Amino acid sequence: MKFAKYSQNITACLAILWLAGCTIQSNQSVKFKRSEAVEARVKLALAYLEQNDFPKAKQNIDTAMKHDSNDYLPYSILAYYYQQIGNTTNAEKAYQSAIQLSQKQNNNDQASPDVLNNYGTFLCKQGKFEQAYTQFNLVLNSERPYYHQADTLENLALCAYEAGNNTLKKNALTQLIKLDTNRAEQLNKLIK
To answer: Could you tell me which residues come within 8 angstroms of residue 162 by beta carbon, excluding any fewer than 6 positions away?
Structure first.
């Protein structure tokens, strides 16, 4: 009799653990699919932006945000969308949202370097050179892994060139030479 009750209790516990395991797996697969959905919509939005099909790009950005409103990536793409259509006020707001969300996703750590790099480029185009330099320096000094430092150095050199800051331009080119000599030489020819 005791064995039967013990067996029933173990069976019940195993059933509960199995269901809990199924629930956890189910939640993880939903999260994975949401992440895939966001990524797919972002890629579609970028493709439409390259084709200057702004309504379809915006539709995909909005759909990505519906899939996960706490993911910084759709906001970053939204900022780029607003840049492309010339709405700098909303681009600024979207960049700020992307930065804040990326900090939250990184446990209030530094914002994602890709967002900071893009924001720096945006600021430079607005003639806000000092603010742009700050963003580029945050990227270059980030402790987070970032594999596009050459892009940031190129953006920094171009921004310094636009601002007439020859010292900063030369420093950025010197650093870029260490990462990508050919790219630095080509850029140097363009901005002499």
So the answer is: 124, 129
